[in-house]
Design a protein that fits this description.
It contains 3 helices and 13 strands; from the N terminus they run βββββββββββααββα. β4 and β5 form a beta hairpin. By secondary structure, it is mostly beta strands. Mean pLDDT is 82; it is low at 1-5 and 9-16. The radius of gyration is 16 Å and the shape is globular. Strands 1, 2, 3, 6, 10 and 11 form a 6-stranded mixed beta sheet that branches. It has a 5-stranded antiparallel beta sheet with strand order 5-4-7-8-9, with no helix packed on it. Strands 12-13 form a two-stranded antiparallel sheet.
Length: 193
């Protein structure tokens, strides 16, 4: 993999993350394609300091060295959402990227190696597809997902809670996003994930 990672965060078809893996210092480009500022928790990058990317703008993070692993998590109304996972110089000296919705969602996010769209992970239409699935869901399904899907006053889905805390949510999300982003429960509290 090249040492560039792009990360795109979309709100209604709007956000991206691209890791830029250069020969010296790996770089991560975060592009906010939305019309609002987007907050990200940075774990393992940016000195573990939160980052706010302005609307329709790009920020660049430099990893301290090639032996680095972490996550960049979009934050929606104070809740964790989609998560980009990045490892530089991991197993066998390889770089790894992944996208996950196990801690929630509130926007759309993709991640890819800079300039290599075939490496893209994530669903640029995740929230739109979640809203469509919710709208079509039976009353029994909606009742079973109480406390995991959050709507605004008009009934529009604005956020999804963590799959790990809502087992029924995993099969619901797989009905529209299977294979596009990691949506399992993850390795939590003794679970192998």
């Amino acid at each position: 993999l090249s040492q560039l990672i792009s990360f795109h965060f979309f709100d209604q078809l709007t956000h991206t993350l691209l890791p830029n893996l250069t020969a010296t210092m790996p770089k991560i480009f975060i592009t906010n394609k939305s019309d609002h500022p987007q907050k990200f928790y940075c774990h393992g990058f940016n000195n573990n300091q939160d980052l706010i990317v302005k609307p329709r703008s790009k920020s660049t993070l430099t990893a301290p060295n090639h032996q680095n692993s972490g996550a960049i998590i979009a934050v929606h109304d104070g809740h964790e959402g989609e998560q980009a996972e990045i490892t530089f110089n991991g197993f066998g000296g390889n770089d790894f990227i992944d996208m996950s919705n196990i801690v929630g969602a509130g926007g759309n996010m993709t991640i890819q190696q800079e300039g290599e769209p075939s490496t893209r992970k994530g669903d640029p239409l995740f929230m739109q597809n979640l809203r469509k699935a919710w709208k079509k869901a039976s009353p029994a399904t909606r009742d079973g997902l109480k406390g995991s899907i959050f709507t605004n006053k008009e009934g529009k889905v604005v956020r999804m809670g963590p799959i790990k805390e809502h087992p029924k949510l995993e099969s619901f999300v797989r009905s529209f996003a299977d294979g596009k982003t990691y949506i399992g429960v993850g390795a939590w509290n003794g679970s192998p994930g």
